[in-house]
């Protein structure tokens, strides 16, 4: 897995502004719907790759015990500030661990494990993926669900990555983010090279940041293999926010696994 020093380092300070349009409430509602469909009522929730804990703060309205795990110290610092803003009633329900998922280990089983915003894609090698699913299995109680999203391999190969630019106005100036993406079919990854410029109102450059995020896209047969290897039953593969199967027109997919 890429270290927290190489991804979401300095980038983290701009994360919430860049992703201010992220659909956290829609994600939470989608999760509630999935749990209703599968008739599960979790109490102890674990989130792999919780970032700034925005999703967990929303989920605290439904769940009393949420454990968040993230490897980025700067993201955790932002999460702690978000908990303070949310108030003690919410903060008391959420525990945050600053730890690589690969090294995460507590003597506790959970009723639900979620990992959204394609966290699993940061596990680039087969061995890293093996440990990711092993950690998921070892922290889940029997018959409980593991729900995660990812980049769907056939869609990535069909559509191919594109270069993108985004400009976000702030009260002090502009954040200009560009990314150049390179597809590597030999190891099923996309290398996303970010450049972030923060300029003031007079277009003077204040800060320039470069980060590379290497993302592993996944195929259903891979997920099925890891599920079988670590004692999961595959309940569903779907297109993100939809009830339909993954397809080549949508990079974003999700899977629901149940611990045997």
Overview of this structure, please?
This protein is α/β, with parallel strands linked by helices. It folds into 2 domains: 10-151 and 218-259, Rossmann fold; 156-215, S-adenosyl-L-methionine-dependent methyltransferases. The chain is built from 8 helices and 11 strands. It has helices at residues 15-18, 24-37, 54-59, 73-86, 88-91, 126-138, 153-159, 220-229, and strands spanning 44-48, 65-70, 94-98, 110-115, 140-151, 164-169, 173-184, 189-200, 205-216, 232-239, 252-259. The longest helix has 14 residues, at 24-37.
Give the key terms.
260 residues, alpha/beta, Rossmann fold, S-adenosyl-L-methionine-dependent methyltransferases, four-stranded antiparallel beta sheet, 11 strands, 28% helix, globular
Could you say what the CATH topology of the largest domain is called? Rossmann fold
Calculate Rg over CA atoms: 18 Å
Write down the overall geometry: globular
Strand content: 35-45%
Number of domains: 2
Q: What structural class do you assign from the helix and strand content?
A: alpha/beta
By CATH, the superfamily of the largest domain comes out as Vaccinia Virus protein VP39
CATH class call of the largest domain: Alpha Beta
- Poorly predicted ranges: none
Mean pLDDT: 94
Count of individual beta strands: 11
Written as H for each helix and E for each strand, in order along the chain, the element string is HHEHEHHEEHEHEEEEHEE
Assign a percent range to the helix content.
25-40%
CATH architecture of the largest domain: 3-Layer(aba) Sandwich
Largest sheet, strands/sense/barrel: 7 strands, mixed
